[in-house]
Every structure is written in C-alpha cells, then in structure tokens.
C-alpha cells in the first residue's frame, strides 16, 4: 500500500533562509563592520534573542507600534514567565550593561549584530525576521559622541561604496520640553480632529508626537502647521545640537534639519538622526538612532547618558544591489582537486589538508551519487571550471607514481600547468592564491 506523500514543510512567511552566495555577501559585510568598529574602538556584545516582555514594554514605551502590535510574545510553559523575541536590541544591550555593572569603571562603546523579530506584513526590506547592526555608546553625555556615531555610520557608506544617502537631523530636547510641546500638539490637533485619520486619532492623547511622522498626504497641511518642537527646546539642548552639527560640518558631512523627525521609540531625547535613501521606496531609512539619556535608569540602573544607532542589514543589501556595488563577498575555492581514481583519495586528502592549513581554499571533487563513480578527467575539469576556482590540482596516475601532481591554471586562457611535489605542498601553496587575496 502506497503511503500518502508527506506535505512539504516551508519556512515561516517573512522569515527567510539566507543561502549562498547571499550568505557570502553577509559575511563580507560583517567583516567590514568588525574592521570599522575596531577603528572607532567599539567592542562586540552579544545578548539573548529572548528577553522578558517587561524589558520592551518599559524600555520602548507601551504606546509604541512595536509594543502594541509587532512583538512576538509568549508565556513560558515551564514557569509562566512572559517572554518576547527581541524586536530591537538597544533595550537588551542596556539591560546587559546594567545587569553586569559594565559602567562601574567608565563609559562603554559597544556594537552588536544579529536577528530581530517583528510581527508585521512582510514587504521589500521589511521582514518578520530581519537583521540589525547597532552601535551604542553608554556613559557619555557629550555632543561629540553623538557626532562620532554619525561619523561612524557615514564612514561605512564610504567603505561600502554606497551613494545618494542623505542625513537628516533633529533635536527632541529634554522631557520637560517635550511635555510642554506635547500639550501644545494635543490642543492643536484637537482643533483639527476632522482631518485626522483613525491612526492619528488613536495616538492623539497617547503619543501625539508620532502624528508628525504620518505619511498620510491628506494630513500634511495640518501637520505642517503644527507647533514645532524646536520652539520649546531650551538653550542647553540647542547648544548640544549646535556642537553636533559643527563637528559634522568640520568633517564635510552633508546634513539637513528635519523638524518632523521623531523616531518611533519613546526613549529618545535631544539628538535624533536618520540616514535615508530615495532608492528603496517607502523603506528608505537604512540607519537611525539618537540619544537616550533616561533609558538606563528606566531599566533599573543608575542614571547615565547614552546614544546609539541601528541599521537594517536587509535594507542596506537592497541598496547595494540597487547601486550594483561589487565585491559582495566571493568565497569560491582557490583550487579544485581532480582525483580520477578513488584509491588516490587518502594520499590526495593529506595534500589538500596541508594546502588548507596554508590558507588555500580547496574543493575536492566528490561524486553526487553512490553509483556515479569519480567521473572522467574531462567531466571533473568541467566541474573545476564551474566551481570558480583559479586552479585545478590534478592527481594523475603517472604523476602520482612519481610523487607529484599537476597544477593547471583555469583562468589565464592558455591552461598553463606545472608539476609540483606532493611532499612540498606547503611550499607551493602560496602560488594558488590569486593576487587579490595574497
């Protein structure tokens, strides 16, 4: 009796596999990040993917979109704890810093990279599992640190060869200033309630500042006439912002003031910023952040200032593809081992291990099926060429009997080849490395 065919299990919608060669591009990108962070003296931190739900409710704000609609939260069946897959990582970094008393001997510059989770409708550059890279400077109050983080992100665009990215800045002031502005906003929008959409009406008394960030074209005239936060910001906050912009100007960084830039999380104060492109449609923000001087205390630590940013890896990759930036990580083998007879495999493997130990990427031919056999020399050389390798290492019977192998060029157009001693593999390994990686 035939068994019914089992239904194929697929990935969760919006949670995507990262396959070669895209995964090689991700490795290339992460290498760029690690190198750049080291140059700015930022050190890596890794926090759990699952945190207590209260961390995000308290840290991000109960009336933010993330907490209200987008978090993957659940009750632990073993102990009843309320847990959440992290929707962002600033709160987790702050929790780790507080829990482990990392600020006891001064400020810390930290960075992270990894997956985040939000329950929303998947679309281009916006997925349910997505990846963020973030930089956080905790324990520093000066405007020069705000500028340093902006310069760090700006340096990354140059490293990647990305263009047409604009920097937008705003200052949100301090909580008392925002409270006064909030009251003015509520009074103003109440007078124009007939123009507000349902989302704006819902936010009116809980988080009116987010109304300024609305993309509804019918509301833009009313939003344009709303009280400006800048008119409520005190001199100290303006001086802080002025120093940030002077440092950026001194370094030739173009920026524009955007009074409607508020970011989506409650913990921000003073400087906020976004790097934006027009080449990704509605998902144009590829990096954003700002100062959050009250979050550490909110999560239970001693009051301490902080500032940081996060960038969406998928959106950066979308932009790299849009601008056809080359060099997205190529991990083809340097050499491909052609082994005509199976009895040669043990001795050939010793040579290949020596080459790999010398930094050479080597792929050994292996049949796809048990009944296929090793395949002819011609078919193996076709596989070698298709692999992208620069050279083929051929373990021919005559050469093998002499204790040698042939190294054949696959990329110079003439197929030049030379004979090398098996016992001297570590000596000729460097000749297998292409000039770009030697």
Automatic annotation (TrEMBL):
<dbReference type="Pfam" id="PF13393">
    <property type="entry name" value="tRNA-synt_His"/>
</dbReference>
<feature type="binding site">
    <location>
        <begin position="88"/>
        <end position="90"/>
    </location>
    <ligand>
        <name>L-histidine</name>
    </ligand>
</feature>
<feature type="binding site">
    <location>
        <begin position="267"/>
        <end position="268"/>
    </location>
    <ligand>
        <name>L-histidine</name>
    </ligand>
</feature>
<dbReference type="InterPro" id="IPR045864">
    <property type="entry name" value="aa-tRNA-synth_II/BPL/LPL"/>
</dbReference>
<dbReference type="InterPro" id="IPR004516">
    <property type="entry name" value="HisRS/HisZ"/>
</dbReference>
<dbReference type="InterPro" id="IPR015807">
    <property type="entry name" value="His-tRNA-ligase"/>
</dbReference>
<keyword id="KW-0547">Nucleotide-binding</keyword>
<dbReference type="GO" id="GO:0006427">
    <property type="term" value="P:histidyl-tRNA aminoacylation"/>
</dbReference>
<comment type="subunit">
    <text>Homodimer.</text>
</comment>
<dbReference type="InterPro" id="IPR041715">
    <property type="entry name" value="HisRS-like_core"/>
</dbReference>
<keyword id="KW-0648">Protein biosynthesis</keyword>
<feature type="domain" description="Aminoacyl-transfer RNA synthetases class-II family profile">
    <location>
        <begin position="33"/>
        <end position="340"/>
    </location>
</feature>
<dbReference type="GO" id="GO:0005737">
    <property type="term" value="C:cytoplasm"/>
</dbReference>
<dbReference type="GO" id="GO:0005524">
    <property type="term" value="F:ATP binding"/>
</dbReference>
<dbReference type="InterPro" id="IPR036621">
    <property type="entry name" value="Anticodon-bd_dom_sf"/>
</dbReference>
<keyword id="KW-0030">Aminoacyl-tRNA synthetase</keyword>
<keyword id="KW-0963">Cytoplasm</keyword>
<dbReference type="InterPro" id="IPR006195">
    <property type="entry name" value="aa-tRNA-synth_II"/>
</dbReference>
<keyword id="KW-0067">ATP-binding</keyword>
<protein>
    <recommendedName>
        <fullName>Histidine--tRNA ligase</fullName>
        <ecNumber>6.1.1.21</ecNumber>
    </recommendedName>
</protein>
<dbReference type="GO" id="GO:0004821">
    <property type="term" value="F:histidine-tRNA ligase activity"/>
</dbReference>
<feature type="binding site">
    <location>
        <position position="132"/>
    </location>
    <ligand>
        <name>L-histidine</name>
    </ligand>
</feature>
<feature type="binding site">
    <location>
        <position position="263"/>
    </location>
    <ligand>
        <name>L-histidine</name>
    </ligand>
</feature>
<feature type="binding site">
    <location>
        <position position="136"/>
    </location>
    <ligand>
        <name>L-histidine</name>
    </ligand>
</feature>
<feature type="binding site">
    <location>
        <position position="118"/>
    </location>
    <ligand>
        <name>L-histidine</name>
    </ligand>
</feature>
<keyword id="KW-0436">Ligase</keyword>
<comment type="similarity">
    <text>Belongs to the class-II aminoacyl-tRNA synthetase family.</text>
</comment>
